[in-house]
Amino acid sequence: MLKRMIGIELRKALKNKLFYITILLGCSITMLSFVNSIAIYQNELLMQEHSAGNPMQALSNVFNNWSGGETFSLGSSIYFFVLPLLAAIPYGWSYCEEKQCGYVRMAAARGGKTCYYLSKYIAVFLSGGLGAVIPLLFNFLLTSLFIPATLPTPVYCTSNGVFFSSLMSSLYYTVPVLYVLLYLCVDFVFCGLIACISYCAASLVRHRAVTVILPMFLLLAFHYSRQFIYTSSTIRYKEISPMYFLRPVAAAYTASWAVILAEAAVLFTATMFVSMVWERKHEIY
Fold it and tell me: Which bin fits 161, alpha (ψ -120 to 50), beta or left (φ > 0)?
């Protein structure tokens, strides 16, 4: 029964118009980054044609020109700002709507509360992760068609945005494709958990629009609370804001596996508790 309910929820999650709208919107935003990167790369090629050679030819590659590899374009800035929203839109609202229309009572009666809540959690998690990562993957592949995937060099670390102390910096300068894939996996997991915040918010609020935008406001509040934590100019802080450490390049402070895994564990524990324990104990009839 669990396998069947997971299949039903996944079909509902991945075959609804909001999922496709989110993918289209995300790809449109990353196209802004793509256009900017192509314009910069073409200017560099023109400079090379009108000079004896370009001593900084190794500066530009796909790894520091795709949306996740650069921090200066409007498209990249907008995308990672609205990332929590893109994660929640595809299916985070579904539990709120199903509670109001009575579907929860019917599904729980037929398959059991545990099966329903677990299948719903899995579907929301996967839809959130895919909704956020597919546009990034699209942008990386599209940029790869026009800008060569030359191996980044540490000489231009300030342009790459990956420094000696950065997370997985050695991997970036040796196997950059694997670096990109690992960061996409991190983004997938975190955005899936962010979408599950929407799922849990439906236990407390009745309006689905609120459940969709709530994760973004929570992350923004956490992001701006950093100013009360980063108070010393002599301490080498680690980045604690998902809105920054989900970017594959350094936006402010250095990302850390300890922080990423700790925050992911907290989100997973909290969302699983609300959806599988707290909500399951409440009367739905």
Answer: left
